[in-house]
């Protein structure tokens, strides 16, 4: 999966220090911005940032953590796209720091690694409980020992893989695609669509 490989490369790059968004990342952010911006406006309201971040697959989305980042970018309640990009750059650093704090909390023996048992507690604290098959797949993708320990960078990559797959394994995604293709018709623009009547 090319997108997944690109994600892993981006996470590794961010681990060495954030150096801006790639063109593809900026396009993905623009798409999310367009989806959540105020209708008939070029701006996004700051109260919608939590929803945008969840849509993008982020888990550290509490308003009290986001508002100081917004205030560093603008004193207004609305952000244009350039301000949104500035906010996202700050958010990436904020999220990584929050991940570090959570990692350190669950690295009970201070070894610089967490066990799979500690990973279960950590993911639960972040608000999700991945199925074991997803855990094994994600650990394999990030080159972690599925019976051993995860470093901080492997944890960040694991969470990125989890976000990318939305918690589903590759076989599950393939089955969803097969079922969708089986039942989908074509919309006005020729794209594959699944009509609401077909869902019952």
From TrEMBL:
Q: Which SMART domains match?
A: EFh
Q: Which InterPro entries match?
A: CALM/Myosin/TropC-like, EF-hand-dom_pair, EF_Hand_1_Ca_BS, EF_hand_dom
Which terms are listed as keywords in the entry?
Answer: Acetylation, Calcium, Metal-binding, Repeat
All copies of domain EF-hand, residue ranges:
94-129
Tagged with keyword Methyltransferase: no
Q: Does the keyword Nucleotide-binding apply?
A: no
Example of a GO cellular component annotation carried by this entry: myosin II complex
- What Pfam families does the database record attribute to this sequence? EF-hand_6 (PF13405)
Which GO-annotated molecular functions does the record name? Answer: calcium ion binding
Protein name as annotated: Calmodulin
Protein's organism: Alexandrium catenella (Red tide dinoflagellate)
The taxonomy runs: Eukaryota, Sar, Alveolata, Dinophyceae, Gonyaulacales
């Amino acid at each position: 999966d090319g997108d997944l490989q690109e994600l892993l490369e981006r996470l590794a790059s961010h681990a060495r220090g954030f150096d801006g968004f790639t063109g593809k990342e900026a396009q993905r952010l623009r798409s999310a911005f367009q989806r959540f911006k105020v209708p008939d406006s070029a701006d996004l309201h700051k109260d919608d940032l939590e929803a945008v971040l969840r849509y993008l697959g982020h888990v550290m989305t509490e308003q009290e953590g986001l508002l100081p980042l917004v205030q560093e970018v603008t004193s207004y309640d609305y952000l244009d796209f350039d301000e949104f990009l500035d906010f996202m750059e700050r958010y990436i650093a904020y999220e990584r720091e929050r991940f570090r704090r959570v990692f350190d909390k669950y690295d009970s023996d201070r070894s610089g690694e967490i066990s799979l048992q500690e990973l279960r507690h950590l993911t639960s604290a972040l608000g999700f409980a991945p199925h074991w098959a997803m855990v094994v797949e994600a650990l394999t993708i990030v080159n972690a020992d599925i019976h051993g320990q995860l470093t901080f960078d492997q944890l960040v990559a694991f969470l990125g893989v989890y976000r990318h797959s939305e918690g589903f394994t590759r076989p599950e995604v393939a089955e969803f695609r097969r079922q969708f293709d089986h039942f989908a018709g074509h919309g006005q623009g020729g794209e594959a669509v699944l009509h609401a009547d077909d869902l019952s």
